[in-house]
Amino acid sequence: MRCQVNWLPLQNRFLDSMKKIFALLNLFIVLSVQAQNADVRISALMGKSRWFDLAQELHVTPADSVNPLLHKMALAMTYHYFNQSDSACIVLGDLLNNHQEELGANTLNMAVLLGMNLARTDHYAEAAGLIQNLCDQLKALGTDSTQIEILLTLVQQYHALANNAPICQPLHQADTYRIPMKTYNTMHTVDDKTNEGHFITMDGRINGLESSLVFDTGAGVNTMSSSQARDYGLHLLDTTIPLAGIGIQHGQYAIADTLQIGGMAWANVPFLVADFQTGNTKADSIGALLPPVIGLPIMLRMKEVQLDFEHRMFIIPATPSLRPFNESNLLRTDSEGLRFATTDKDGHPLYFHFDTGGYNTTFLPHWYEQHKDEVQTVGIPDSLRVAGVGAVQMTRSYLLPHKEFRLGNATTVLDSVIVNTGVDLHSAELKKEQFLEGEEDGTLGLNLLERFKLVIFNLKGMYLEAIPY
Asked: CA distances (Å), 323 to each of 58, 145, 329, 422, 461, in order?
């Protein structure tokens, strides 16, 4: 039995229902029979949510060869997914102010997208007002209350952050900071005697009190337990948010007056307070020991983090590095996850959930279904136990003896790679990871990153790059 801890790919649980509102197929203009080839290609890429390919298509396609409305919508989507929210707000504002008649029913979709990007640019009050206005209009039109409730959850979240703004306000000067990298392995228990894997951590202070902090790129929010929130003196807010892991729970927003990491410090830092329950006594007792988690909100302020595994340091440069290749290989999902794009040795595309909160790099059922013959031929049958938000899951799995991975311009080989079939070990039913969007081939974990001397994680140019030993 292999064991994998998947405690912290914590996302806001709006995705499945939000897709009903963000019916992306409805975002696209109806093309005439004489539509240009560029229009057809761009519409098809948007319809299939192929955002990496869409960004590349826009890069090589002259703007004047694309229907103007379609081009603006495509730009808005790429700005949204590749963390260019300021630009997304400009284009979306133009669409809503000048093209509502052409947008038709798509106006709602564009307005919700604008609200999300206003929040991403710290305009929380404006975002809350926009989404509340949409809710009022939808209610007057007799829209399904389930859709309105999802949007109202966003309104509640944005109002809470607006009332505590400025959120994550930096208190330090721009400079290069180096933070010692430590490890924490208590939760990665295989049996009563051994551990497999670990988290990477950094030392910090919350409201002036010392704390170890887990560095987790799979966490869409900063998190801590209710007892930690009391110990560190956080201010609890009257706002709860659904969380997803293997199952679903709810957490409560809280604000730390200050967070300090090395020479860096921020004021008004939000944490989601939740006592993660799996229903398994042993797993829950181990999980209660987890230190507070630093997730995407702080990483976005850092802009770039270099994981120097050779010297066991986190390096936050004063100026983010320039992307060493033309296109981004990292995007920001609607559920505040990070999706990494790469290729296999034959050049076929692969998409991974980037998660330093998980140790093992693992192929997921989506990939297994497309490579079943290969896996069953060369893989060693095994089983996998995953502890996560809401449940402990045991599934059938395989171990691949060797697999080559590309990370930016560098490659490495893992000697043993887990393939999760998603089939429950006891019921034989196919299980679904609640925190993923169904398009990832796997999760990219620490065991792959630590094969390199240095990994550059950049949220300005949206890329991952690795430097081999």
From this structure: 18, 44, 10, 36, 6
Take residue 209 and report the two structure tokens written for it: 């009190």
Q: Could you tell me the sign of the dihedral formed by the alpha carbons of 74, 76, 77, 81, in that order?
A: positive
- The pair of structure tokens assigned to 427 is 């019921």
Q: Give the closest residue to 247 by CA, choosing from 429, 13, 1.
A: 13
Which one, of 308, 272, 315, 296, lies nearest residue 218 by Cα?
Answer: 296
Question: Do 381 and 401 meet the contact criterion of CB atoms below 8 Å apart?
Answer: no
Give the whole-angstrom CA distance, residue 182 versus residue 199.
8
**What pLDDT score was predicted for residue 195?**
52
Residue whose pair of structure tokens reads 């950049």 in the numeric block: 458
Question: For the chain, which ranges sit under pLDDT 50?
Answer: 7-34, 190-194, 434-435
3-state secondary structure of 401: coil
| Total residues belonging to the chain | 469
Question: Tens digit of pLDDT for each residue in 238-287?
Answer: 888 877 655 667 889 999 999 999 999 999 999 999 987 666 566 566 66
Please count the other Cβ atoms lying within 10 Å of the Cβ belonging to residue 391: 19
pLDDT at 239: 86
Strand 349-354 and strand 442-444: pairing? parallel
Using alpha carbons, list the distances in angstroms from residue 32 to 36, 68, 100, 336, 341: 9, 14, 20, 36, 33
Where b means 16+ CB within 10 Å and e means fewer, 56-72 reads bbbeebeeeebbeebbb
pLDDT at 104: 84
Is the preceding peptide bond at 166 cis, omega within 30 degrees of 0?
yes
